[in-house]
Design a protein that fits this description.
Layout: H1 8-14, H2 17-34, H3 37-43, E1 48-51, E2 54-55, E3 67-73, E4 83-88, E5 92-97, E6 102-107, E7 111-122, E8 125-134, E9 140-149, E10 154-165, E11 168-176, E12 179-186, E13 190-197, E14 204-212, E15 217-223, E16 228-233, E17 237-242, E18 252-256, E19 266-274, E20 278-285, E21 290-295, E22 301-308, E23 321-325, E24 335-341, E25 350-355, H4 356-363
Parallel strand pairs: 1-22
Antiparallel strand pairs: 2-25, 3-4, 4-5, 5-6, 7-8, 8-9, 9-10, 11-12, 12-13, 13-14, 15-16, 16-17, 17-18, 19-20, 20-21, 21-22, 23-24, 24-25
């Protein structure tokens, strides 16, 4: 039957109910996105205020949505010499010191999100493996691998492995025993788990399994202690999966992006591990310039905070975040939280550095 020969009423009577529900949901999501920022903040749950203690130099791409995601490496021997790797998703990867100064830039093209792990075998030696979601080919996702030299703060490209068909968005690493896995989140909500091997001259990857969310997703993080993967579905909420290679592929929703505790877009994800199983998962509530903490033990809501203007500017419209506990020197004695700043006054976008102790005290949570 040709649609042109049907009345509008006849057409809508024949539309599947699920299509109409999805259309209404899409319109509702668009309406929430379109609401002025002041309205979104007023409708959201109260957030406490913290201020940044530092910031990085702006990325090199001006007048554009360019800075995206950070990853932290902690120097256990000399915490003040720790490093931050950050993406300019239109140009490549930066390495910053805790003073915010640029230590290195590697032209890697359109790399979106980044993660790293220390103690990975690289070319036969233990080292710091950095991975980025490579979207230089929008139709075919790749994982770009790099080695970070802690002494020189330089990145060296190792090669790329296949991440599956689709546009690469998010990425996070997971260590299970001696194995290293990357979860690459594609734009359509597909999450591919890739077993990585960087021990030889050329890195290799093997797809282990595929997980699925229904719509656009990006931020992710894995708790290596418990083997749980957390993924943010931008207009829907925060989910968790079993990260183990032989685990269930089913998803459990932790929080809905309903405009209360979590405001769409739900973006970056980071973990604050405390003890053997406790701690918090943090997610960027991009829609109202806030960040939300949920308890790892029972997925319960723990609080919200914003990074506001102080001696250092605040952070707004945050995409990627990272968090690592431990001593990072006198400015960050209990841990470091890094957030992309999507509106860095008149300069290009950058990353803001916040002391975990300041966040935990403001929220009244353990640290």
């Amino acid at each position: 039957m040709k649609i042109s020969n049907m009345t509008n009423a006849g057409l809508f009577r024949r539309l599947p109910v699920v299509v109409m529900v999805m259309t209404l949901a899409s319109c509702a999501a668009a309406g929430k996105r379109a609401a002025p920022i002041g309205v979104r903040i007023a409708n959201a749950t109260h957030a406490v205020d913290v201020t940044a203690r530092g910031e990085t130099a702006p990325v090199g791409t001006p007048n554009a949505d360019a800075a995206d995601d950070p990853a932290i490496w902690r120097n256990a021997a000399d915490p003040a010499q720790s490093l931050i790797v950050g993406t300019d998703k239109k140009a490549g990867l930066y390495v910053y010191g805790l003073d915010g100064k640029t230590r290195d830039f590697l032209d890697a093209g359109r790399v979106n999100n980044v993660d790293l792990r220390d103690g990975v075998t690289i070319n036969g030696q233990s080292g710091i493996l950095v991975v980025a979601s490579d979207r230089n080919d929008a139709a075919n996702a790749n994982i770009a691998l790099f080695r970070l030299d802690p002494g020189t703060a330089k990145l060296a490209a190792l090669g790329k492995v296949d991440g599956g068909r689709g546009e690469a968005y998010g990425i996070c690493l997971y260590r299970e025993g001696t194995a290293t896995y990357a979860f690459i989140v594609l734009k359509d909500g597909t999450v591919n788990q890739i077993a990585l091997d960087a021990s030889g001259a050329t890195p290799t990857g093997r797809m282990v399994r595929t997980l699925k969310l229904g719509t656009q997703s990006e931020g992710c993080a894995v708790d290596d202690r418990t083997g749980i993967l957390y993924v943010a579905e931008e207009d829907v909420g925060l989910w968790r999966f079993d990260a183990r290679a032989t685990g269930s592929t089913g998803a459990t929703k932790i929080a809905a992006a309903d405009g209360g505790n979590l405001v769409m877009d739900a973006e970056g994800v980071a973990i604050a591990p405390i003890g053997t199983r406790d701690g918090y998962v943090l997610v960027s509530s991009q829609g109202d310039n806030a960040y939300v903490a949920y308890r790892l033990t029972d997925d319960s809501y723990a609080g919200r905070f914003r990074v506001i203007n102080g001696k250092i500017g605040g952070s707004e419209e945050t995409d990627g975040i990272d968090l690592m506990l431990g001593n990072f020197g006198p400015d960050y004695p209990g841990g470091l939280f890094v957030a992309q700043d999507g509106h860095n006054a008149t300069a290009a976008q950058n990353f803001k550095l916040v002391a975990w102790d300041d966040i935990a005290r403001a929220l009244g949570i353990a640290h």
